[in-house]
Design goal:
CATH class of the largest domain: Mainly Alpha
Number of domains: 2
CATH superfamily of the largest domain: RNA polymerase sigma factor, region 2, helix turn helix motif
CATH topology of the largest domain: Rna Polymerase Sigma Factor, Chain: A
Structural class: mainly alpha
Helix content: 55-70%
Radius of gyration: 20 Å
Number of helices: 8
């Protein structure tokens, strides 16, 4: 992510130092959960602190969900944290904040896909690289082609299957937690994971036939 875009101004520097209330988010001493509660009470400093802590988590998730070359990811990260501020009063600590915010990100991206109709922008990605690796040009080409095909296959999954696969297989969210975040029964979540893996396997079998 190119920089931290979300910024909230501190209290006016013109006020006497003794009259300024302590910043509840200063020093990063509060837990994520406490910061969410503060957000629910209208504390912009707490929201800025949560952004500093968690924006990379949201950016990584959206990159995997939409493809790393999608031009709107930065805007969607911003939208996720603005939605977090609205959702904060309803936070019930049923999941860790870094997981809870993924549920918010999913709702934001679903709205984006419905309203903007930009599915075609997700179908190509040239950025799936994992650093400099040693190997012959032929082996590196084959590996890159495999990674590219995997990325494209994930992006082309039906929405409900892609959500389950990205959360559990790529983000490491447990099945029980993912089911709770998505408001699903665990059995439904596991069925979606099974179907997603099956579709991905079929795609690779076709590609190597």
């Amino acid at each position: 992510m190119n920089g931290k875009l979300l910024r909230f101004p501190p209290p006016s520097s013109a006020a006497p130092v003794a009259a300024v209330a302590p910043d509840p988010a200063a020093g990063s001493s509060l837990s994520d959960e406490s910061l969410v509660v503060a957000c629910g009470n209208g504390d912009n400093a707490a929201l800025g602190e949560l952004f500093d802590r968690l924006h990379q988590t949201v950016y990584r998730f959206l990159s995997r969900y939409l493809g790393p070359s999608n031009p709107d990811i930065d805007d969607l990260v911003q939208a996720t944290f603005l939605e977090l501020r609205r959702a904060a009063p309803r936070f019930r600590k049923e999941a860790p904040v870094n997981r809870w915010i993924l549920g918010i990100a999913i709702n934001v991206v679903r709205h984006y896909l419905r309203s903007e109709k930009r599915r075609r922008t997700m179908l190509r990605s040239d950025d799936l690289r994992q650093g400099q690796e040693v190997g012959s040009p032929e082996s590196m080409t084959a590996k890159n082609e495999c990674l590219q095909r995997l990325q494209e296959t994930i992006l082309e999954l039906p929405e409900h299957l892609k959500t389950a696969f990205v959360m559990c297989e790529l983000e490491g969210v447990s099945g029980a937690e993912a089911a709770r975040l998505l408001n699903l029964r665990e059995g439904t979540l596991w069925r979606r994971l099974h179907d997603a893996r099956k579709l991905i396997r079929k795609c690779f079998e076709r590609g190597t036939a």
